[in-house]
Write a structure and sequence with these properties.
The protein is mostly helical. Helix content is 56%, strand content 0%. The radius of gyration is 14 Å and the shape is globular. It comes from Mucilaginibacter polytrichastri.
């Protein structure tokens, strides 16, 4: 049974995020890509709650995070790095470290303009996350 009342309808739909917080990750796992779209701007009302929910699962959603890190959306990448990946308590999955290393070492023009490369460098040098 697919229940999507935990997916925000707009940037201020914090009621949906409150419902999300009470669900086991296994029930929402298939909707991670949709939830990550709500982290395109860290100032949106729903962003912090979604990030808090996903932080413990960063390594379980590596594929979805790498997808975002390979887009051309610098702001989205920046937000994903700082409000989600940087707050993980666990060593990052090697594929995620690889994607961050690529950004840190060989940023695109957009990544450099949006300081995504600097954000990636902050993570790569973090001994807890990448040590």
């Amino acid at each position: 049974m697919k229940n999507e009342d935990y997916i925000p309808k707009n940037i201020n739909d914090v009621a949906a995020v409150e419902r999300l917080k009470h669900l086991p990750f296994e029930l929402v796992k298939e909707d991670v890509s949709t939830l990550l779209e709500w982290l395109q701007d860290g100032h949106w009302g729903v962003a912090e709650g979604i990030a808090e929910y996903l932080i413990p699962h960063v390594n379980e959603i590596t594929q979805e995070l790498v997808f975002v890190l390979n887009t051309d959306d610098g702001m989205w990448k920046y937000c994903i790095i700082y409000i989600l990946i940087a707050r993980s308590k666990d060593k990052l999955d090697p594929d995620l470290i690889k994607a961050l290393s690529r950004i840190a070492e060989h940023p695109s023009r957009i990544e450099a303009e949006d300081a995504v490369d600097e954000a990636a460098k902050d993570i790569i040098t973090n001994k807890v996350l990448c040590g």
